[in-house]
Automatic annotation (TrEMBL):
This is DUF3159 domain-containing protein. Residues 233-255 are annotated as: Disordered. The keyword Hydrolase does not apply. InterPro entries: UCP010219. The chain crosses the membrane at residues 54-75, 82-98, 118-139, 160-180, 186-209. The lineage of its organism: Bacteria, Bacillati, Actinomycetota, Actinomycetes, Kitasatosporales. Pfam families: DUF3159.
Amino acid sequence: MTSLDKPTEDTQQDDARAVTEAALFEAFGGVRGMVETVVPGLLFVTIYTINKDLHMSAIAALAVSLVLVVVRLAMKDTVKHAFSGVFGVAFGVVFAMMTGNAKDFYLPGMLYTLGLSMAYIITTLCGVPLLGLILGPVFKENLSWRTRNPGRKKAYAKASYAWGLILLAKCAILFPLYWWADTTQLGWVLIALKIPPFLLAVWLTWVFLAKAPAPIDVFAEMEAEEKAAELKAAELNGSTGPESADAGPRHRRDG
């Protein structure tokens, strides 16, 4: 390796890390997405801790979720993370209202976390890591990592296992508390466990993918193939055009 090669490789690695960071922020919502997932639950447990009023706590949590969606719409920003928060809060409100048990406000989210942890682990064991399915379109590689980029598939597998095990550990803490602790204790522990495990999983994903081979941009490949086909067609038309144009005068001279 020459002294001229090293800066180029360092620049490529820095570009790969920057692309990975941008893709992760886009996929998981970044700081704003984290805030939107925390605020409704925080409001619920705060109000319930103060007055033990299930209805007021549930309505306040649902109302703030809707406000977050409206703000996103007003700013013409993507609403997928805010909408997911609304659905999660709505299911929690329905469960809690039906049973009359305030702890059931958290149950749908806990069951979702458990199911997601299993999905990460099972899909990876089956050779199709869930994180690759999520991030493949974001990196414009779709499923090319499965057959054409084994190093990247390995990175997706490691990251998916990390997500699955971290979420499973979170469930191992929350479900016993659901049975043994009261609503406020469960709520505050759940709020405390919202962001740190998520940040750990995102950081590990960044570490694995930053060291992995670069994604294969299948969209760019398709565009290149289309341009090549257009150029080939243009060349064929250009080669046949003059011959057909000369055929008339030659025929007249022969005549």
